[in-house]
Design brief:
four-stranded antiparallel beta sheet; 2 domains; alpha+beta; two-stranded antiparallel sheet
């Protein structure tokens, strides 16, 4: 194996390791785009960067950045697949940003800018792991949750459910009601701002105690 091949393998290997580090952090948060996805994105971006450099070197003309620049916009389509909306809340924005950044890190590895790639990876891990703990521990007093309640048909059912939620300091932001006339059941969907101090176990028991309620789910 000649020095050029070793350089190529080293750059791709570094892209794999750094992308995997970010993906592993996402994996701990049970995200769909986890370890393998970030690895593949980082390696692919590094390979495209290597191809761009090789084309420019062999042809003696052209801009290596033109091909590599398409990664920046192209990775956005993959990131969009990681974003999911649940009522008032949107999930996956951080994962989408991590995918986009992993592509940038892979490109840096591909062009041999390993210092920038390593520094960016370290900062991403600080932002996603350390500041996640800080945000949940000190900054975020409330969090949005989605309550899906299946029950029998009752005229004042929604009012009773909302009364229980209000009792626990929960502020309802969005309401949804679906009635199945065949099975004579009602599905109530409520998106609400829930204080961290709220005891969900006690809340679930109280909702289950409502006679018409069949099932309660919290997302």
């Amino acid at each position: 194996m000649n020095p050029e091949d070793l350089t190529m393998a080293g750059r791709l290997g570094l892209a794999l390791v750094l992308g995997g580090a970010i993906g592993l952090e996402r994996e701990t948060h049970s995200q769909a785009a986890g370890l393998r996805t970030h690895m593949v994105v980082s390696i692919g971006a590094a390979l495209i960067m290597l191809i761009s450099l090789r084309i420019a070197a062999e042809s003696g003309r052209g801009d290596p950045g033109r091909v590599a620049a398409q990664v920046v916009s192209g990775i956005g389509f993959l990131g969009a697949g990681a974003i999911i909306r649940y009522g008032m809340t949107i999930r996956g924005l951080t994962t989408a940003a991590c995918l986009w950044t992993s592509a940038g890190i892979g490109m840096a590895c591909g062009m041999g800018y390993w210092k920038g790639a390593c520094a960016a990876t370290a900062l991403v891990l600080v932002a996603t792991f350390v500041f996640d703990k800080l945000e949940h521990g000190f900054l975020r007093e409330t969090q949005y949750k989605r309550f899906v309640i299946e029950s029998g048909d009752a005229p004042d059912l929604v009012a009773r459910i909302e009364g229980v939620l209000t009792k626990y300091g929960i502020q309802i932001k969005q309401r949804g009601l679906h009635q199945d006339f065949t099975s004579k059941t009602v599905q109530v969907t409520l998106t609400a701002a829930t204080p961290q101090a709220c005891k969900l176990e006690d809340l679930m028991r109280e909702l289950d105690a409502i006679p018409e309620v069949h099932k309660v789910e919290v997302e």
